Amino acid sequence: MVILILAVAFIAATLYAVLPSPRQISSPSLRQVALTTLQVLDTEKALTETVFKETTDQAWIDLQIALSATLPPNIIYNLTAYDLVQIGNIVTYSKFHTITNSKGGTGTYSEAASYLVTSTNVTFTIAPQKISGTLYILNCSDANGWWITGYTSQSLAADLRNLLSPYFNTTVMVQNTAQLGSLLNGNKISSLPHENVAKAVILNTFGEAVPIPSSYADMYYQDSYARYCYELGKRTNQYNWTWVSIVGYPFYYVSNIVKLSASQNSWGIYGMVDVGPAGLNSFLRGLDVENYPSYSYNGAWITGSPGVVYFSAGASYYSNYYGIYPSPYQTATRTLPSWIQGTYHTTAMASVFNPVSGWYAAATFKHTGTGALTAIGLTRIPDIRVTALALLMYYRPTLYKSKLTLTSGERPTQRLVVLQLSQQGGS
Amino acid sequence: MPGATIDHLVATTVFIVAILAFISLFTQTLQTAILYQQNRHVALKASDLLDNILLSPGYPYNWGVTNATLSCFGLQQPGAAGYVVSSFALMRLTSLSGKPVEYPRGSGKWYNNISLGPGGFLFIPMSESIDYETAARLLGVNGTYGFQLDITPIVKVSISEHQANPLILKVEVSGPGFPLSGAALSYYLYRAYKTGQYPSIELFSGTAQADSAGVAYLNFPLDGVTETYTIVLYARLSGLLGVGHYSHRTFTRGAGVMPFVVDYEHGKVYLAHSWDVHDQGTPVPDYKFNSTFYILTEEFEFQPWPIANSTGMLNYGSKNYEVTTLPVAHPGFLLTTYWVGGEYGMSVMPWGIGTLSVSVMFGDNPAGNVWTATDLRQVSVDMMAYQARIICWSLKGYQVWKPGGW
Fold first, then answer.
1. What is the ipTM of this complex?
2. By C-alpha distance, which of A212, A292, A296, A199 is closest to A251?
C-alpha cells in the first residue's frame, strides 16, 4: 500500500513538476535581439524610409537581404509593417506589408519587438520662445581674428546667426568697426523695428581679438588699448549687455586693419595689437564700474589651464533640449578663475562644463548690477556650438510643443514595425 | 510469534527500502529541477550583464578617451541612446585574443595586442587597459559569475587578389546568415610610391556594387605583384554598414614600421622600428617612412589630417622611433608607408575600433565550466553594424565546474 502511494506520488510529481525546456533556458533573448536588429537597421534611417515605400520598391528587397544577413542562419523572422489609423480616440492597426524567410510560420515559440517609425514627410514645427534682447553679431569686415584658425570671423558669424537667430526677436550683423563704434555710443545701427541696444547680446566672433573702431582707437589707446577694454566693460554695464567671447583669452588683442595697419600682434598678423592679459582685467574692472570707477593698468595673467573638462549635468540636459551636440569633453586652456566673482562682483551662471579646481571653462559671469560676460575658455579652434549652448543655458528660452503636419498627400504618417523571431526546430 | 516477528522485520525492511528508493527518485527530480533553475538564473544573468554593459557609458562616462580610473563599467557611447557602443572604450579593453607584445624588447613594458591580421596593428599599453578582473569587480560579478564578451562586425567584408596584373581585387560581402546581395561599395586604395626623399601615397577611390552573391570585382591600373597598397572598403545596404581592408606589400623581411600608442589619453603614438619588437637578423634595414592619419567624416569619407613628424627615417640605433600625435576621440586610421632598398611596406592602425571593423574579445575563458549561457544584441559602433555576444557561467553553486575541463 505504501509503495503504491509513493509510486502514485512520484508519478504525480513528475507529471506536474514541469521544467522549462532547455531552449527556453539557454536561448538568446529573442525580443532584445529583434529590437536591437530594428535599431541597427534604422541607424541611418534606412528602415524608416523603406517602410514608407511601396511594397514593390527595391528597398523592401534590400531590407529583406539586410535582415537575412544580420540574423544568425537558424533564426526565422517575420517583419510586418502596420498602418496606424486614428479615428477619434480609437487607433486601429492594419497590415501593410510582410517579409519573412519562412513559409510555415514561426513555430510554437517566438518573441517579437515593435518599433514605431514616423514618415519623413512629416514636419515637426518647433516654436522657440524669443529672448527679449537684440543679438548683435560682430561681423566687421575691417578687423582680423585670432585663434579661429580654419575659419573666418565672417563664416563664424554666419553660422552663429543660423544657430541662434531663431531664439532672438532681432538679430543684427555688425558689418564694420564704424557700426560697432555707433553701437558703443548707444545708437541703433539698423532699421529693424525691434532693435534695442539695451539688454542686447554682443557676440564677438573674432576669437581672442576684439574689433576696435577708429574713433575709439584714437581715444582709448592707453596701455596698448587696455583702456579700450575698460571702456567695453563700462558699456556692457551701462547698457546691460551680455558680452560673449567664443574662444581663448578674451580681449587679448584689438584689431582694426585700417587704423592699426602698421602694427602686428607679435605673431605677424598686421592690423592687430597685443593687449595681453590687461585686456580682460580692464574689461572686468569696467564691468564692475561701480567699484572701479577709474581705469588702472593690471597686466596679471588670470586664466588657468585645467586641461580636459566635462559637460555639467545642466549642459547634458540642455544639449538634448536644444538639439545642440558639441563634444561633452573639451580641452580648456584659458579658463576664468572663480575668484573674479568676489573681486568683480559677478556670479558664475550656466556653466557648460563642471568647474575644475575653481576654473570655469565656459560660463556666464553676471554682474550683481547689470551686464555679463560669457567666456568660452577652450583652446582653439572654436566650437561655436559650445557658445550657442552656453548662451541658451543662460537665457533658457522655452521650446514650445512641436506641431505635426503632413506635407504631402493623405499617406499615413506613422507605421508600426513588428519583428517576430523564433529559432528553427522550435520547441 | 516468531513468524509474526519475521513478517514484521521483512515488512519494515521492504518499507525502508521503498522509502529510500523513492527518496532517491525524488532527489533526482529535485536535482534536475535545481540545475534547471540554476542554469535559468545564469541565462538571466547573462542577459542582465549584457544590457548593463551596453546600456551604460560607465563612470567617468568619457573613460574611453582618457586614462581615467573606472568606478563603473559600461561601453555605451556617452551621450548616445540605445545600443550604441563607444569605439574608443572598446580600444581600452584588454584583448583576450591577441598575445601581448613587449616594446622595446626587454623593457618590461607590455602592450595589449588587438590583432588585425597582416599589416594591421593596434597596440595599447597594458597599464592603460581595463582588464577583466576590474570589469568583473565593477559589474559586481567577481567570484560569482564569469563572462566573455565578443564584439564582432555583422557585415564581413573579405578582400583578396583575383588577378595580379592588371590588378583585380575580389570583394565578398556577407553577414552571419546570408550574403549581402547588391550592397553598395565605396573603396579607397592607397598606393605607395616614391618621388622625393620619402615615400608618398596615391589615392584611387571609387564605388561599385556587389552582385546577387555579394561579390564584386574591382579593377585597378596597377601591377599587383610589384606595387604596395592598402585598400579600405565600405559596404552598405539598407542601413547595414560594414568595412574591410586588405594590404599588399613588396617588403617582407620584417614588420617594418610599427605604431605603438604610448600615451592613450593624449593620442601619442610611437612609429617604431620593428627591430625593437622582433629581431629579424642582419642586415637590419633603415626605413624612410611617411605616415598619414585619415579621419572618418560623418559622410563616411576619409580625409587626411595633418600630424606631427609625418615623415622621417628610422634605424635600429639612435633613431629607432618617431613620435606623432593623433586627435583624441576622432575616429580614423593611421596609414604608414615605408621604403627600403626599392621595396615598400605598409602598416595600418585603426583609431577607434569601428573604423576598420575590428573585433574585440574581452573577458575570461569558459573552458572547464559545465554550463554556459549565451545572449546577443545587435549594436552600432561608429555607425557600423556589430554583434555583441556574451558567454556567461556561474562560479558558485551546484555542479558548475568540471575538474580537468572539457
1. 0.85
2. A212
